[in-house]
Amino acid sequence: MNSVIQCLSNTKLLTNYLLNDEHVRDINTTNSSMKGSLIKAFATVIKGLWKSNGRVVDPSSLKGAVQRFAPRFSGYNQEDSQEFLRYLLEGLHEDVNRVITKPQPIHTEIDSSLSVCEQAMEAWKRYIRRDDSHLVDLFVGQLKSTLRCSDCNHESVTFEAFWDLSLGIPSKSGEVSLLDCLDTFTKEEVLDGDEMPTCERCKTRRKSTKRYTLYRLPKILVVHLKRFSPSERSRNKLSTTVTFPLNGLNLSRYTDSVSNTSYNCYAISNHSGTLYSGHYTAYAKHAQSGQWHSYNDSRVSKCSSSNVISNEAYLLFFELS
């Protein structure tokens, strides 16, 4: 929890929103299960962290609010930081959702005769008619999935919103680059046998290829490195070092976006130890000074940017440059 809070605390677009009390006017008391209490508790912690008195901040009231929103985080067991981040962002979003009365979701398929751009826009509109907040403005992007029929080459596209990208690590040890992970994520996958989809044009099930691309890039991109395989729960985690540039990570080859595709890393949540007995720490870069710091529960120390990429990196936080 502390590791994730430090990463979010150094997310300046989120912190400024809270320090300036902009969240207060956005609080949704109608359909948020927490009626604003989660974002208020979170804002109190963030304000405490950015006070200049140097006192240690006790986040137990925030922990209590998170537990009420997501009871699975009760107690003091080690929890997965990616799951914690996802629940926390979802709860914060719900507290400041601009949608006061949620309409029913639209389940009809989007008209495939529309252009790809129009289909993407329609999918996005369907998302934000139910979920629209400052958190969505910052963290949510859009994935495009393209199915291509191997028989007639017809392509169909679908779009889904994402709060973070979970990337597999294509090597069991040693070193890979984050671009290797993205190459694997966006690689064409063949759907055959039981997995064959129905081709819109052929009107029958056909062998097809499927690939993901990043269609809409979020202002804040969170990358989750899958160090624990769900099928290998009993095994050790992957200790591969995933390398990436701290500044100028260029995602242009993974996206249709023609706008800015360059990201700078500003925070990393690290996991040391095993699946069952581990410890989370964080590295984060101060938005004003550019100085990196190491956060280990109540201990904070300056560190060099050359030390922040390690084989314990678990969640990577990037901002659009």
Describe this entry's structure for a reader.
- The structure is a single chain.
- The chain has helices spanning 2-9, 12-19, 37-49, 60-69, 81-95, 116-128, 134-139, 178-185; strands spanning 141-149, 155-162, 165-168, 175-177, 189-191, 208-216, 220-226, 241-243, 249-250, 262-273, 278-285, 292-296, 299-303, 313-320.
- With 321 residues, it is an alpha+beta fold.
- The strands form three sheets. Strands 3, 7, 9, 10, 11, 12, 13 and 14 form an eight-stranded mixed β-sheet that branches.
- Helix 3 (37-49) packs antiparallel against helix 4 and helix 3 crosses helix 5.
- The two termini are 27 Å apart.
Which characteristics define this entry?
8 helices, four-stranded antiparallel beta sheet, 14 strands, eight-stranded mixed beta sheet, single chain, 321 residues, alpha+beta
